[in-house]
Amino acid sequence: MSMEDPFFVVKGEVQKALSKAQGLFERWEELLQEEAPVSRDELDWSTNELRNCLRAIDWDLEDLHETISIVEANPGKFRLGEPELLERQEFVERTRKSVQLMKEQLSSPSAVAQAEKKNKQALLGATAKDRYAGLEPHLVSANSRYIQEQQEQQQLIMQDQDEQLELVTGSIRVLKDMSSRIGDELDEQAVPSYAKQKCIALLLLLATVNCMMFLYKALGNSTVYVKN
């Protein structure tokens, strides 16, 4: 038998196409069974590519069937025995059943419903992603403004506290000078030492109380921030 027999040429092409179709079919099933959302583009591509491949195989099988019919009609001309013809017929029928099985799976209600579900998941996922992507810059900007406002407010509070502490420090210096002058005057008036000490102590006590009250009023209603 000649290796240039058209049947074997077409048979080789059919076998290659069938192998490709089976690979596409397996990937198509994996995409439908995947629990996580899948790419809609990949699912559509796998489905369409599988359909086109199966359609091409059907056409080749029709060509093979015609060649077998021609040989059967002229057995003496082609010199093919019955076993050879039977083997060719079995190949065509076996391949046709495999193709038909995949076509039925592609068009089954469960597969169609699952494909629609996957497409909706992909669409909703893309919509949500776009929506949150649009919100993200706005949220980042709002957060940045809030942080900046808090930092500015903290800075103002710290400046106010510095000014009030300066006032307290100045008041303490004034009271210290006043105590010193009173002590000098008491010395000039020959006031007994114990009485002078008592007077100065009383004055310092009053000054301390006044300072504490001032501090309480100045800082009692504010959060104290410590500089780094």
TrEMBL record:
Q: Write the gene name.
A: LOC107581588
Any single biological process term in GO = protein transport
Origin species, per record, is Sinocyclocheilus grahami
What Pfam families does the database record attribute to this sequence? STX6_10_61_N (PF09177)
Which family does this protein fall into?
Belongs to the syntaxin family.
Name the major location: Golgi
Recorded GO cellular component terms are: Golgi apparatus; membrane
Q: How does it sit in the membrane?
A: Single-pass type IV membrane protein
Cellular location(s): Golgi apparatus, trans-Golgi network membrane
Q: Which UniProt keywords apply?
A: Coiled coil, Golgi apparatus, Membrane, Protein transport, Transmembrane, Transmembrane helix, Transport
State the name under which the record lists this protein. Syntaxin-10-like
Q: Does the keyword Protein transport apply?
A: yes
Q: Which InterPro entries match?
A: SNARE, Syntaxin-6/10/61_N, T_SNARE_dom
